[in-house]
Each structure stands twice: as structure tokens, then as C-alpha cells.
Amino acid sequence: MNPQHLLTFSVVARLKSITLTAQHLHIGQPAVSGQLKLLQTFVGEPLYERKGHQIELTAAGEGLLKYADKMNRCYNQSIEYVRNLQKISTGILRIGATMTIASFYLPKFVVELQTNYEGVQVFMKTLDTAGTLDNLYNLDLGFIEGSLQDVDLSSNYQVIPWQQDEIVLVIPENHLLARKYTDYVPLEVFAQHQVIWREQSSGGRQVVETALLEAGIIAPVNIEVTGVSAVKESVRAGLGIGFSSSLALKNEAAGLISRRIGTNQGLTWQLNIIAPKSALQSRATKAFLELCMKESTL
């Protein structure tokens, strides 16, 4: 069965006229008659009768019309959906992002996207960098921490440098380190004080561990928590010193302060976006990327 013949049959049944159907579909009357003939041949029995200048459906035609109308509705809805996609007034955006990026970087961009394009649905998964890479085929965009020098990406994807962030020490505002060091703290403090460590997959932790390794400093891991919020609450409770993205402390209430680590330049890290090549991006993906890249620092 040719789907187009069924769609034409639906219009003929509604207008009860081959002439009007031809005008409606912008095709010739012979084309409409030919499609109806082929459809009847496929069914194997008459679907309509001519009564004067009008078309009347047979019982078989009435039965088939239910499915033809349903198909016609779906067809029209799909056309409307595509039109909305072209205006970015609908669609789905699936994002994978590390905890720091999902919590402190992306919310404002998601709000701006849905303000500009109310019909777009955004689904964001919090994943570490490895998890984001493993789920790329289920995502429209991936936001990750650190370098991808040793990662072999599919040729369908590109890595877009996005933000340069800083890892800072998190301490109570009355901590002795806050009084002793007003600019930056030396790396040795990680061996001299109990540290609240992020989970092993944390990009921030990897930055700190790399710096300690290069400096030949061994810092024991006695407390390990998941997420920036857990680090801040553990530090606030007096369990030790911690570290986080500088952005995580930007709007922090009184009680916690930050210090640069190692030197007065601090410990920096790079945040990257993994995106499909431009030709493979949906309109919603392109719109979100444009918002994000307006505030790129790289």
C-alpha cells in the first residue's frame, strides 16, 4: 500500500469530490483518480461510489477511512512539528555534564534557552567525564573537565574549548590558614591539614593531585565526599580544609572563604564542550551552543 494513496483517499472522503481534492492537493484530477484506482486494486473491492458529482464511501471505504484519517492527522502533526523545529519552538536538548559544570555553570544558560524558546525541553544528566564520553550517542552536548588529549573521539564529534576555571582552597573564614595566608597558600598545606577530598573521578581532584605529584608532596586521603556541596558542608562543620571550583564559592554566604593554591596564579583547569559536527547539530543544540559561547573565556 502506498501511504500517499491513503492520504489522498482521506482528502477525497472529506471533500467528496475528485475535482476539489485535486485543487486542494495541487495535482491533476487524473493523478487523484489514478491513486484511488491503485488503492482499490490493492484492497480488492470498491471503496467508493459516484453519486452525481459526489463521492460516497462503501462500507469497506468507511472502515479504511478511520486509518486514513489517523495517518493524515499524524502527517499534518509531523509537518507542524518540523515547522516548530525550524523556529526552535519545540525539540529536546539532552546534556551530559560533570557535577561542577551542571551545578554552577549551565543553569543560567538553560534558563535563557527556555526563555527564548519556550517549547524546548532540556534533560541534563550529571556524569563524570568518563560517563559523558560513554554516553555521547545518547546526548546532544557533553560538558567535561580537563584535557582530552588521550581520548579517541569519533569523527562525528568536535571538542570546543570553553572556560578556564580555577581550583581554590575552601576554608572557614576564621581558619588559621586564612589569617596566615592572605593571597595564596603553598601546596604543603595539603600534607599538614586534614583534607576533604572530592570523589576520585572529579576533575578538580585530578588537578590538585597532579600539582601535588609534580611538587613531590604526599597528602593522605582520610575523608572523601561526592560533590562540591558535600565539600563545603564538611569544611563548614570543621572536618578539614577542602577545594573546589572558584565559581562554587562566588555566591557563598558568610562562613567560608577561598585562597589560591600553589602560586599567585593559582591552579587552573579547562572546561570543554563535546559537540557533534555542525552539520549534525539540531537547531536547539546550535542555539544552546551560541548562548554558551557568548561567555567563553578560551
Keywords:
D-Maltodextrin-Binding Protein, domain 2, rod-shaped, 12 strands, 3 domains, Arc Repressor Mutant, subunit A, alpha/beta, 12 helices, two-stranded antiparallel ribbon, eight-stranded mixed beta sheet, 298 residues, 43% helix
Give a short summary of the structure.
This protein is α/β, with parallel strands linked by helices and 298 residues long. 43% of the residues lie in helices and 24% in strands.
Number of helices: 12
Average pLDDT level: 90
Q: Name the beta content range.
A: 15-25%
| E-strand count | 12
Rg over CA atoms, rounded to whole Å, is 31 Å
Q: Which residue ranges are poorly predicted, with pLDDT under 50 across at least 5 consecutive positions?
A: none
Helix-strand layout with pairing:
Elements: H1 3-15, H2 18-25, H3 29-43, E1 48-51, E2 54-57, H4 59-86, E3 91-97, H5 99-104, H6 107-116, E4 120-126, H7 129-134, E5 141-145, E6 157-172, H8 176-180, E7 184-185, H9 189-192, E8 196-198, H10 203-215, E9 223-225, H11 228-236, E10 242-245, E11 256-261, E12 267-276, H12 283-293
Parallel strand pairs: 3-4, 3-5, 7-11, 8-9
Antiparallel strand pairs: 1-2, 5-12, 6-10, 6-11, 6-12
